Amino acid sequence: MNIDGVTKEIITDKYGDFDLSSGDVKTSSDKIEIAKENAHHRILSSHKDMFKYPNYGANIQESIGKKINDRTISILCSDISHSLTEDFFLGANEVSILPIEDEHTVHLKINVGENKNALYGKDSEINISINTIEGVTYVR
């Protein structure tokens, strides 16, 4: 599935609940918002979460219990990037991941966009904190 094939998306809040606008489910036709919404779902999904797509998702839960080091961070970044690009939903040049290590936690600033200029705007940013003891502790 390519992002160009998605023309409208249901928008959810950071917990995955429907975002309501004037009492109705909020939808969007904005490419950046669609990319961000889909990326958010892909990043937080585990393998086998979706029956027809067993490899869908970044499977970041696999990092729980592992020591934070360069290898763990590299695997996290690679798995997230793969989940966003493996079916050509986004191109490699449309994904930017900046990891920041902090003891048992990796903070990831992930930007998704339809071109390189969109990669660095706040509108296309997803922030995730993954604690290897507690799991995913922050998503926004």
Strand order of the largest sheet: 5-6-7-8
The total count of helices amounts to: 2
Main sheet: strands, sense, barrel: 4 strands, antiparallel
Average pLDDT, rounded to a whole number, is 81
Distance between the termini: 24 Å
Helicity range of the residues? 10-25%
Overall 3D form: globular
Specify the oligomeric state: single chain
Q: Count the strands?
A: 8
Strand content: 25-35%
H/E element order? EEEEHHEEEE
| Weakly predicted, low-confidence segments | none
Structural class: alpha+beta
| Rg measurement, Å | 15 Å
What does this structure look like?
With 140 residues, the protein is an alpha+beta fold. Helices cover 21% and strands 26% of the residues. The protein is built from two helices and eight strands, in the order ββββααββββ. The chain has helices at residues 31-44, 70-85; strands at 9-10, 20-21, 24-25, 27-28, 95-102, 105-112, 125-131, 135-139. A four-stranded antiparallel β-sheet has the order 5-6-7-8. A hairpin with a 3-residue loop joins strand 7 (125-131) and strand 8. The longest helix is centred in the middle third of the chain and has 16 residues, at 70-85. It is globular, with a radius of gyration of 15 Å. The protein starts with 8 loop residues before the first strand and ends with a strand. The mean pLDDT is 81.
